[in-house]
Write a structure and sequence with these properties.
This protein is mainly beta. The protein folds into two domains: about 120 residues, Immunoglobulin-like (Sandwich), CATH 2.60.40; about 90 residues, Sandwich (Immunoglobulin-like). The chain has one helix and 17 strands. The two termini are about 30 Å apart.
Length: about 230
């Protein structure tokens, strides 16, 4: 009974924090010196184009095409976070075990006719830097985009080449204004994505997502809820 109450409280805190994020709370940056050993964080990303709802008995948060990602929310480590994501009557159940020091991203993707697909991306960051920006890249569209890469838009400078499927690759960048281009097999695919001005000490993520019109990019600021 104690475990059930602990899990319920953990997921309730997660959803309430995300609801506050959508309303008025301002996200804060990740710790410049790195998280404490027992800290764990979780966020949701909508890779379906907008309209995914995350729900539990505690409340609901809706993601949109304009705000496809929540901030990272602290959760109790070594406990299973449970809930459900839905869109247009389709659903997928969430059951995530988050380990100490982990940053877990739950990505909702188009799935079968009966439901949505969920993809987990796990990181234990070790690249915190106060004078550089950290950019991560993950390819969740490996069927549509083999040997996925990310290069500076309008240039032949690659930031990532042949990214591993369903995991984050990450590197440090100077804090400058950046636009990026997805490549598949070394060839540009889709439109360039403006990331804007990257800030020193901040962390960011770009995800390649499958789409009916071809793979596309989603950009997220790896911020924390307060």
């Amino acid at each position: 009974m104690t475990n059930f109450r602990s899990i319920s409280r953990g997921f309730a805190s997660l959803l309430l924090a995300m609801i506050c994020l959508g309303a008025s709370a301002q996200p804060t940056r990740l710790y410049r010196a790195g998280p404490t050993a027992d800290a764990s964080f979780l966020r949701f990303v909508d890779g379906t184009g907008g309209g995914v709802t995350a729900t539990s008995a505690a409340g609901t948060v809706v993601l949109t095409a304009q705000q496809a990602s929540t901030a990272f929310t602290p959760v109790a480590s070594k406990w299973q976070v449970k809930g459900q994501v839905t869109k247009n009557g389709k659903q997928a159940h969430v059951a995530v075990d988050v380990q100490p020091g982990e940053f877990v991203t739950v990505v909702a993707l188009p799935g079968s006719a009966e439901g949505l697909a969920l993809q987990l991306l796990r990181e234990q960051p070790d690249d915190f830097n106060a004078i550089k920006a950290s950019l991560g890249f993950a390819n969740l569209a490996e069927k549509e985009c083999e040997a996925a890469g990310l290069k500076l838009a309008g240039r032949d400078t690659f930031l990532f080449e042949k990214a591993d499927a369903k995991t984050f690759s990450r590197r440090l960048l100077n804090p400058v204004d950046v636009s990026v281009q997805l490549t598949c097999g070394g060839k540009p695919v889709g439109a360039a994505l403006a990331l804007g001005q990257l800030e020193a000490g901040e962390r960011y993520s770009v995800l390649a997502i499958p789409d009916t019109k071809g793979p596309r990019l989603i950009f997220a600021h790896d911020s924390l809820t307060q």
